[in-house]
Amino acid sequence: MKKQLVVVKIGSSSLTTEAGTISDEKIVDHIEAIAFLKNLGHDVILVSSGAVAAGFGALGYPVRPKTTAGKQAAAAVGQGLLMQNYILKFMEFNIVPAQILLTREDFFSKERFHNLYSTLTELLHRGVIPIINENDSVSIEELTFGDNDLLSALVSGFLHANALIILTDVNGLYDGNPKESMEAKKYHFIPEITEDLLAVAGNSGSSVGTGGMKSKLLAAQKALSLGVSVFVGTGLGKEKLADILAGKGDGTYIGGPFHSQMQMRKQWIAIHSQVKGIVEIDEGAEKAIVQKGKSLLSVGVTSVIGEFNALDVVEVRNPKGQIIGRGQSYFSSSDLQKVKGLPSEQSKPFSINQKAEVIHRDNWVTLTKEWILDE
Ligand SMILES: Nc1ncnc2c1ncn2[C@@H]1O[C@H](COP(=O)(O)OP(=O)(O)O)[C@@H](O)[C@H]1O
Ligand SMILES: N[C@@H](CCC(=O)OP(=O)(O)O)C(=O)O
Fold first, then answer.
1. Which residues are annotated as a binding site for ATP?
2. Is residue 200 in contact with ligand 1, taking CB distance under 6 Å?
3. The PUA domain covers which part of the protein (predicted)?
4. 345: CATH
5. ipTM score assigned to the predicted complex
6. Predicted model pTM
7. Is the N or the C terminus of the chain less surrounded, counting Cβ atoms within 10 Å?
């Protein structure tokens, strides 16, 4: 894989303990994974939360303080402790980290914005890992970023990062808070952030996190609008970030593949094209195209919804009504109505190229984690 610029955001709960201290085990795991990614030749920018959560224990607070003064005091202590850990542990990998504390005003002024860009690019050029957090101990409450999810989205957008990886204490977005419902189901891939998805994303489930899944989705929406694809999830071990970058992460991929090796045609089908109709297929056809990488044949089509021309992009649904992917149809909707369920020999004459496939495998993308893995 060619060199990528990756922004990694780590939430408070993934760095600290409930008692308001740094978790050595957690922070070391992240540092090893970042060092591994860097050794593969990638550039990494870290957006690290955890200043308040790492500092309140040392100040004698039993739980995360609620007052502004309490949070700002805890952040003043915790930010130093975080950097102490980062500096010492990155040193073991001969990596120099740099601290950058930002306020929202830094993004308002064109000059400061430009300076920030120049500083970050210079640090990356020198092989340094910039570690960014909000300047919590001086930020004015009404003028904060809200949370670091949004900050990481803004940073990844303005540096044209190849990927934004948001590490948290849950392995992705579920259709309900998994800490509250055992029934909740995980989304492996979301092409875009919709109102329905925002409605299922709730608040923080931990005593130290702030925005919850909702703020991650809003941040992802911002990152996508700035052209950056996002992963939200978790992982363990030094290869976790490399795996996430390769599409093998334990979480939810949002927007599209991280690496640009995906053919342009498939990228267009998956992300940019307008869906003109719906094709429903049976179980055998689902297996053939998703698991075996085969083309979709007319015999597996059970119904055709909407009006479309040949070569338009259609959404394909399985018998459960789930969207399993998209592809370009070689049949118009009216021709497909005539040949649905028929063997290829009988449907061929209706196809624009006299071929049997309704959707050729080269014009198909499966909208699941496997789709990202396949490419
Ligand atoms: N639909 C959902 N899917 C997954 N997690 C959810 C959902 N709704 C709410 N959450 C909660 O969001 C939490 C992650 O957000 P947060 O606590 O702010 O983490 P961080 O400190 O990493 O930023 C999870 O622990 C989970 O309890
Ligand atoms: N800037 C704050 C963290 C704000 C924040 O977004 O926290 P989190 O939801 O854990 O990512 C801090 O360092 O304590």
1. 9, 168-169, 210-216
2. yes
3. 277-359
4. 2.30.130.10
5. 0.97
6. 0.73
7. N
